[in-house]
């Protein structure tokens, strides 16, 4: 009770300066949230601090940290793809995280790279060859995400979900090998899957860290076989407190539990960079509270602690997706409030502060990718996640 009284007196008696000081520690903008946050920070001191091994040299960490997610494959017109890359490059982003969906390249069957979904038929590679060329033209680098198996890779087609892994991991390995071989010397960073610890990214079935580790290791082996110099990122772990593997909305496995089971299954030998997603949903990027059930911007510190404990201190963390959600005040929008809510001004300010914190406080973090640049159209304006976008189509 005395802690509450002291905090209240400090914040109420010192005006804006005290509020700014509290925000710099709690990420909270409102008085009540700042009071609660400061008390929780006091409680944090009663627990052991995460071990980050800040003085150990980390590979792939001293790089340009500015990245952004793009959806170039969804643009029909080549000039719009180029415009997006040009705008991102001119904004100062060096890294573009771009998916090369398996279902959009090896579309109709094993070894079949012709797109016959529309006439005239064409090579499925044409679009991706142009995308890779754009990176070279504008001096940016891709983090190519490989995921989304086509239906033919599963006996039941899409019965287990369009994101479900293939029945035969050799098909997956062959796809990874084919892509990496095609762009050898041109694309240097590949990410294998996305958010394998939550629904629906592992399909209509329970998430499975051991099965994902098998997929990761097969992809890693085949990628290095195609080009020993490529750098492989693990699938980005989603921040969640869920402990039910699903399937079902909002279900999955807490990323700490999932990661430890990955390590226990031998994943340490199968990635060069550990990837996580790190959103600012309920507080700003200055939130320094360290509580496992608090999904805030500080969660990568726990991931780093686990890496150190598992002998992986020399590897970095890259943040695959990072942002806050500027959804309008319209409760008819699907999922409204599910990602928190900030103003456009706050969203812009938080992004700058997030990069600043990663660069100043986390020497073991390399790239942080803003989520996201834009979609190809505004057809998804009725969905809350659309409002993570940086610009309108």
What layout of secondary structure does this protein have?
Blueprint: H1 2-26, H2 31-44, E1 66-70, H3 78-90, E2 95-99, E3 114-115, E4 122-123, H4 125-138, E5 141-146, H5 169-182, E6 189-194, H6 209-226, E7 231-236, E8 243-244, E9 252-253, H7 255-264, E10 274-277, H8 300-309, E11 317-322, H9 344-361, E12 365-370
Parallel strand pairs: 1-2, 1-12, 2-5, 5-6, 6-7, 10-11, 11-12
Antiparallel strand pairs: 3-4, 8-9
Helix pairs in contact: 1-2, 3-4, 5-6, 6-7
Walk me through this protein's architecture.
- 35% of the residues lie in helices and 13% in strands.
- With 393 residues, the protein is an alpha/beta fold.
- The chain has 2 domains: 1-47, no CATH class; 52-388, TIM Barrel, CATH 3.20.20.80.
- The mean pLDDT is 95.
- The protein is globular and about 65 Å long.
Number of strands: 12
The CATH homologous superfamily of the largest domain is termed: Glycosidases
Over the alpha carbons, how many angstroms does the gyration radius reach?
22 Å
User: Do you know the CATH topology of the largest domain?
Assistant: TIM Barrel
Query: Could you tell me how far the N terminus lies from the C terminus, measured between alpha carbons in angstroms?
Result: 52 Å
